[in-house]
Amino acid sequence: MFNFFKNLTWYPPAETRIPWSAILSAFTRPSGNFTKSLCNYLGVDHCILGESARALLFKLLETLKRQDGGQRDEVLIPGYTCYSVAAAVAKADLKIAVYDLDPKTLHADLDSIKKAISEKTLAVVTQHLFGMLTPIDELKGIAHKSGVYLIEDAAQAFGKVDGGKLPGTMGDFGIFSFGRGKPLPIGGGGALVSHDHLDVLDGIKLNSQGNGYNQTVVSAVIQIMSKPAFYWIPEMLPLGLGETVFESDFHVKGIPNAIDTMLVKAMPILDELNTHRKRLSGVYSNYLADNLLIKNKTTEQTSIIRFPVMLPHTILMKDLNRLGVRRMYPKAISDEHSIKPYLKTNQEPTPGAEEIAEQFFTLPTHMGINDNLAGQISLAVQKY
């Protein structure tokens, strides 16, 4: 009987924790002002909230395209990234161009960007994959030298950094996501910020999304079902948990009132979540020091929402799956069949992105994992 219940203990791969006070406030006082809170926290001048990060990225690209007069029709994105980035480019009726990543650091391959950027490039999107910071200054220099905007995708990196600027505030524009599994996992909503480009943000208009009570109820249910004693239930159901899908036909609306309110009330927990992630990243680094192939120094500066580790030629076994170990995105952008029709012709190969897609797994760093459990997960990973 003990083994039966032990086998039903499943850990989610990413953070789901939201204070119950934030959820309840969405029903009792649905009138937040997260725009002001976010701008103050990030130290930026301009901020727009939307239903999702991909909706805001789409509106940004659509506005840049309109202001450019349609002369440039390509957007350069990482060869391994969330499919929502590619979907936003496709919805803006722009061509997707890709650049490679270095699998040893997860940083952008600068030589690949220099080869891929052209007179048709409207913008370059960079990212902080898993929350591991990418150096922005050199990327920004490359983009600006070609008269191109640099869009910083900070969907996986939100919060204070030791000895540096905050992610999402270093490019021309920053994109944040507050969906499930993100640094502040409200279950919906996104933000677009900028220091200098008020003229662009002024051109972005979003219709109201309404009260958002349905999303709030979903967030409440997730709080319960993500407990290790219950998480096996949604894992066994055909809900598509963790499934990455390319979908360019998505809604583009403003942020619901309830989500806005939850963000205001949940914001104080962000630093606590990030401190916990940073500590667990240290635990994983210590246990797996001899096996880690990533040479990214930013693990000491920032919090990692899902700690990446390379397991070459390993099938994800059920015992690892139960411990919250997962893959991230299943394929490199150029290899995803549903994205190929939207790619520009004559793409350069992205072997680094393909290696990341094929061989990288992620270890959970959320509040449901303590130091002892992180050690057990590390030992389970070492067997493979």
Structure description:
Helix content is 37%, strand content 12%. It has 384 residues and is α/β, with parallel strands linked by helices. It has a single domain (2-382), classed as Type I PLP-dependent aspartate aminotransferase-like (Major domain) (Aspartate Aminotransferase, domain 2, 3-Layer(aba) Sandwich). It has a seven-stranded mixed β-sheet with strand order 1-7-6-5-4-2-3, with helices on both faces. A two-stranded antiparallel sheet has the order 8-9. Strand 2, helix 5 and strand 3 form a beta-alpha-beta unit. Helix 2 (20-28) packs antiparallel against helix 9 (213-225), helix 4 (53-68) runs parallel beside helix 5 and helix 12 runs parallel beside helix 15.
Portion in beta strands = 5-15%
The CATH topology corresponds to: Aspartate Aminotransferase, domain 2
- Which structural class should the secondary elements be placed in? alpha/beta
In total, the number of strands is 9
Kindly report how far apart the N and C termini lie. 29 Å
Low-confidence stretches: 1-5
Strand arrangement, largest sheet? 1-7-6-5-4-2-3
CATH superfamily: Type I PLP-dependent aspartate aminotransferase-like (Major domain)
Overall 3D shape: globular
Indicate the mean pLDDT.
Answer: 89
Return the CATH architecture.
3-Layer(aba) Sandwich
Order of helices and strands: HHHEHEHEHEHEEEHHHHHEHHEH
- What's the number of domains? 1
Number of helices: 15
CATH class: Alpha Beta
- What is the helix fraction of residues, given as a range? 25-40%
Largest sheet: 7 strands, mixed
Please compute the radius of gyration using only Cα atoms: 20 Å
